[in-house]
Specification:
By secondary structure, the chain is an alpha/beta fold. 37% of the residues lie in helices and 10% in strands. The protein has helices at 46-66, 81-86, 102-105, 107-120, and strands at 2-5, 21-22, 42-43, 71-74. It comes from Pycnococcus provasolii.
């Protein structure tokens, strides 16, 4: 069995009292009837982004070693946090996690995947 791990990023509702996070503080738009429930996200600091690979690796380690999963899928689509790093619309960062190319914006995803692989093996 494979477990999927993700971070909701800017798709966090006001009901949980947590300020949503995103690469650049770009708000979520275009979900009819739901957008008022989702507050404007806060741009992540570089320190917070630097910590993401270890957080994903820790989650993967727990799920595989403590709960018996055979593999891990990083969910990097559908507007969740890792996906928003890939998009030029939601990632306007000028540090090592942003840029004009998908390769540049994909740096955090590459780091997360490498950390997960180190944590649970190939």
């Amino acid at each position: 069995a494979v477990v999927q791990i993700s971070h909701p990023g800017r798709q966090t509702t006001i009901s949980n009292g947590i300020t949503p996070l995103s690469p650049s503080g770009v708000p979520l738009r275009g979900i009819a009837g739901h957008t008022p429930l989702i507050p404007k996200p806060r741009a992540m600091t570089q320190t917070e982004v630097d910590a993401l690979p270890e957080a994903f690796a820790e989650a993967a380690h727990i799920m595989c070693n403590d709960h018996g999963f055979d593999g891990v899928q990083l969910h990097a689509a559908h507007g969740y946090l890792l996906d928003t790093f890939l998009s030029a619309r939601s990632n306007t960062r000028s540090d090592k996690y942003g840029g004009n190319t998908l390769r540049e914006r994909g740096e955090v995803l590459r780091r997360c995947a490498a950390a997960v692989r180190r944590a649970v093996g190939p």
